[in-house]
Amino acid sequence: MASSQGSDAGKTALRAEYVRIRTRMGASVRAATDARILLGLEELSAWKNARLILTYVSFGSEVDTHALMQAAWAAGKQVAVPRCRRFHSLDFYVISSEDDLEPGLRGLMEPSPDCGRPLTPPQMVGSLCIVPGLVFDADGYRIGYGGGYYDRFLAFYPGEKVALVRSRQLSGNPLPRDEHDVPVDWLVSESGTWCCNPMVR
Q: Which amino acid positions bind ATP, per UniProt (predicted)?
């Protein structure tokens, strides 16, 4: 249950603030910014070395991942996207094109039932996970949408984690965090790339 005090209240206020920041950006500015972010991602060694990309399917004013999926397929990589399950958990399924997607929870695009079995952690070794969020700090911690889906998944994920983030979604101050929160290893923005985890350099 959400609290009106402490870090929960802080996260709620930050979510509202950064949703406003994101939606105030014009569509053409978002498109140009996201194109530069994708170029930065493609220069990242973790991207170049990954045989499998796990990514969310962007919705609304989120950083675009549709071009990212096309870039991955063009580079000979596999792409997997999540399906939301009960108890706020995620399963990832390999898709061969966006035709394999259909509306799921809250209208978000998810893999269709024809996509076979979900990936297991051993099958994800050597992959790269693109992690969504509303705002990130320099340590790789984030404020997401409040469901806890990705933190539950990332607790057992064996690969590197990267956030695609517009500069306006970067916090100069540490964000509120709980002990179950899992930081990303890399931040890629239109202005540059930042390693949050020296162990992956």
A: 11-15, 142-150
pLDDT band at 4 (very low <50, low <70, confident <90, very high): very low
Which domains does the chain possess?
A: 6-200 (3.40.50.10420)
Max Cα-Cα span within the chain:
48
Task: Count Cβ atoms below 10 Å from residue 64 Cβ, excluding itself.
Answer: 17
Separation in Å, CA 22 to CA 25, 33, 159, 169, 170: 6, 12, 28, 8, 11
- Tell whether 146 is in a known binding site: yes
pLDDT of residue 2 exceeding 70:
no
| Measured distance CA(158)–CA(153) in Å, rounded | 10
Known binder of ligand: residue 15? Answer: yes
Which is it for strands 127-130 and 135-136: parallel, antiparallel or unpaired? unpaired
Q: Is 56 annotated as a binding residue?
A: no
DSSP string covering 35-85, please?
HHHHHHHHHSHHHHH-SEEE-----TTSPP-HHHHHHHHHTT-EEEEEEEE
Predicted pLDDT at 87: 66
Phi, psi of 88 (to 5 degrees): 55, 45
pTM over 0.85? The answer is yes
Please indicate if the annotation marks 142 as binding a ligand.
Answer: yes
Flag whether pLDDT at 152 surpasses 80: yes
